[in-house]
Design brief:
Number of domains of chain A: 2
Strand order of the largest sheet of chain B: 1-2
Oligomer: heterodimer
Order of helices and strands of chain B: HHHHHHHHEEHHH
Mean pLDDT of chain A: 81
Distance between the termini of chain B: 95 Å
Number of helices of chain B: 11
Distance between the termini of chain A: 58 Å
Low-confidence stretches of chain A: 385-399, 433-455
Structural class of chain A: mainly alpha
Number of strands of chain B: 2
Strand order of the largest sheet of chain A: 1-2
Radius of gyration of chain A: 28 Å
Chain lengths: 455, 285
């Protein structure tokens, strides 16, 4: 029995682990085939068209046919590619994505049918299992980055560079959102976290962290609306542009397995893992939380999160790259950080002996105070007159005024134009002076003032 | 405290591979290959850490060093584009020989220390990991060495702030937002600018080059759909030229097939590409 881990692996011999590992790989591969069909079918339904419906019942064998096609296609090697890295990159991607499910609990202790042998429905677990998941995810990016670089082509390189920046930024937010689960559960082991959710699933008390996690998990897996590394409209298909046949299929496989991975982590950490949802968990004194039932609940939740992926993809448009980065760094990370601080304070107060009623009262009073303050706060001083026109004047649309920074470079005034007052002088032009010069320079004054305010 | 058989096997598999990768870092010619070697060494070390029951250290090593630091290195390498053509000239005279000398000295010192050292059996792992590895580590770091941790944290924050300050650039003109750009486009309408992106060049069955104008909804060729550079160089082709080329092509093919008749009505055959026919009509208008 490993200390700090709820599941008991002391009965597992090597061959039990081997069988579990094989089962996980089989589960992942079949799930990917199903996920592709699922995604195409759901998106099709959202767009009022039938989707794949030709091969097999409900078109279920369509992705199998696609996989066979990819296997049999010609494997094109780019002349300018760095051969070794070019081959290594998709392997890294797939390998790292396959690792994550090793620590995901499918269920509690299960008994193998027709035997007395019982074992946890999980390959392994250790005290830092969730960090291990993050480690696998961060290694998997190497596949994308190296694939983009080794293709020896511009679009893949751009995709790779984007992907690096994106994954590093969104991993921070993701890690911070997971921290609040660690604080509440008091552990980083997946089985222990599931055990800690016997009372309430963490997504309710930790709603802000859950929202941050869901957003950053979409960013982490390069899915729409965050699929900038493979944006079709801009980069053909980003890092996998030069890949074909089976090597392309590996990238494809890795992307879908990664979706399953982050969904499984969301399920385990926030959605109660394998625990039955509320009305069912009360049935027959928790009988639905034992035996093989939990595997069903786990799969249901997993596919519910997968549905969110597809839903978001079918609904939202791709972000512009700078907006995406601004969102990650200026919204997600501060929110996640602030939430961790708030939660730590609450946790500390809880440990210090403050009761829940007192806490809630305190929060309500503080909230009322903040709202009251905002209510009574004096209005912002009216926007400087001509601020709107100032923006136009600065961009040179009206053409009459003197733009001291035409084209981004400081330029001297032409005859007939006057230099706007220096922003360093920290003085405004008196109204009389404004009247004396033309309106253009007045608007420029406000523009310069505003730019100083933003510094 | 003994080393289990599995751990020994793991070590003897990983250690030679890691040594190879570490040597690769020195001898490999391309910077990205060197980065991959370092990554391999780091992951190998992480696996060894985990095998030695320092699971937190092992995993954090991958998350922080391999996942973030090495990734940033790679990022810079790809942006800067360091290649095999790196200059290998010595910038400091005699630097190579000095390096070799110092390396030999270090090796001698290390060998001396290692050969002189005795290795008593390791003790205390069970006590240290009694409350699980991360918790025990947290107690050491955040209770015994909390001041050092805080100092290091302040140092890192200072360094990060310094990075921000050093790369900060003062904005010398107001920021142009998407709203400003949209307003500018609308304001420029009287000057003949369009609100939408320019139309793409024409794509016809016979050619999909960028030098042929697209046809508007009224069938008239849109000259501005051809890139400006081609127009200025005089390399744009008119739709009529495409049509003429297409007609001669059709005529040749028909002649080859022995189907050419003197009948002029063959012009309006379905053999001609739709796009070309549209172009023809557009020209007539």
């Amino acid at each position: 029995m490993i200390p700090g881990v709820a599941a008991d692996f002391s009965n597992d011999w090597l061959w039990v682990s081997a069988i579990k590992a094989v089962l996980i790989v089989v589960f992942l591969l079949t799930s990917v085939l199903f996920a592709i069909w699922f995604e195409r079918k759901v998106v099709a339904r959202m767009q009022v068209r039938p989707g794949p419906n030709w091969h097999g019942p409900f078109g279920l064998l369509q992705s199998l046919a696609d996989a066979m096609k990819l296997l049999l296609k010609e494997d094109v090697n780019v002349t300018r590619a760095d051969r070794v890295v070019y081959l290594l990159a998709p392997m890294i991607s797939v390998f790292c994505s396959l690792l994550v499910f090793a620590v995901v609990p499918f269920g509690p202790e299960v008994t193998i049918p027709f035997t007395d042998y019982s074992t946890p429905a999980q390959l392994t677990d250790f005290p830092v299992a969730v960090l291990y998941v993050l480690a696998c995810a961060s290694l998997g990016v190497y596949g994308i980055v190296l694939g983009g670089w080794s293709s020896g082509s511009t679009y893949p390189l751009l995709g790779a560079v984007r992907s690096t920046a994106q994954v590093i930024s969104y991993e921070l937010a993701m890690g911070l959102s997971l921290v609040s689960v660690f604080i509440m559960a008091g552990s980083m082991s997946t089985s222990q976290i599931v055990a800690s959710q016997a009372g309430i699933w963490w997504f309710l008390p930790l709603l802000p962290a859950f929202v941050v996690y869901v957003i950053s998990m979409i960013g982490e897996t390069n899915r729409l609306p965050f699929d900038l590394p493979e944006a079709e409209g801009e980069l053909v298909s980003g890092y996998m542009t030069e890949y074909s046949s089976m090597k392309f299929a590996w990238f494809f496989l890795a992307e879908y397995i990664n979706m399953l991975n982050v969904s499984a982590v969301a399920t385990t950490l926030f959605l109660g893992g394998w625990r039955a949802p509320w009305p069912l968990s009360a049935v027959a004194d928790g009988a639905l939380n034992t035996g093989w039932w939990p595997v069903l609940w786990f799969l249901v939740k997993l596919w519910a999160v997968m549905f969110v992926f597809v839903w978001v993809r079918g609904t939202l448009l791709r972000l512009r790259y700078d907006q995406f980065m601004v969102f990650g760094w200026k919204v997600l990370i501060p929110v996640a950080l602030a939430w961790v601080v708030v939660l730590s304070v609450f946790q500390y107060l809880g440990l210090a002996g403050v009761t829940r009623t007192q806490l809630i009262t305190g929060v309500v009073v503080a909230g009322a105070l903040v709202v009251g303050l905002l209510w009574l706060w004096p209005d912002r001083r009216g926007a400087p007159p001509g601020a709107e026109e100032g923006a136009d004047g600065a961009s040179g649309a009206d053409g009459a005024g003197f733009d001291a920074f035409a084209g981004g470079y400081p330029v001297p005034p032409l005859p007939g134009q006057t230099l706007p007052p220096s922003p360093r002088a920290r003085r405004r032009v008196p109204p009389a002076a404004v009247g004396a010069t033309d309106t253009g320079s007045a608007t420029d004054t406000t523009a310069v003032d505003r730019s100083e305010e933003t510094r | 405290m003994t080393v289990s058989g599995g751990e020994t096997a793991l070590f003897w598999v990983l250690a030679p591979l890691m040594t190879l990768a570490a040597l690769g870092l020195i001898f490999v010619r391309r910077a990205v290959h060197a980065a991959i070697c370092v990554m391999f060494v780091m992951v190998g070390m992480a696996i060894l850490y985990v095998a030695q029951e320092a699971s937190f250290l092992g995993v954090v090593q991958v998350v922080v060093y391999t996942g973030a630091v090495m990734m940033l290195f790679l990022f810079v390498l790809m942006l800067v584009g360091i290649d095999a053509a790196d200059s290998l000239t010595e910038t400091i005279r005699g630097q190579r020989w000095l390096g070799v000398l110092l390396g030999l000295g270090l090796a001698a010192v290390l060998l001396g220390v290692i050969s002189a050292a005795t290795f008593p059996p390791a003790v205390g792992l069970a006590e240290a990991n009694a409350v699980t590895n991360p918790v025990a580590l947290a107690r050491v770091l955040l209770a015994d060495y909390v001041l050092a941790m805080e100092v290091v944290g302040v140092l890192l924050v200072t360094a990060a702030l310094a990075g921000l300050v050093l790369t900060h650039r003062r904005r010398i003109s107001p920021k142009v937002t998407q709203r400003d750009l949209a307003r500018e486009r609308v304001a420029a309408l009287p000057q003949g600018r369009t609100l939408t992106p320019l139309p793409a060049p024409g794509v016809y069955a016979q050619n999909n080059a960028m030098d042929t104008p697209a046809l508007g909804p009224d069938g008239a060729p849109l000259e501005h759909s051809v890139p400006r550079v081609l127009r200025i160089r005089g390399q744009a082709r008119s739709a009529t030229a495409v049509l003429a080329a297409e007609e001669s092509l059709v005529a040749r093919e028909l002649a080859d097939a022995g189907l050419l008749t003197a009948d002029a009505d063959a012009d309006d055959d379905g053999a001609r590409a739709d796009g070309a026919r549209d172009a023809h009509q557009g020209e007539e208008r």
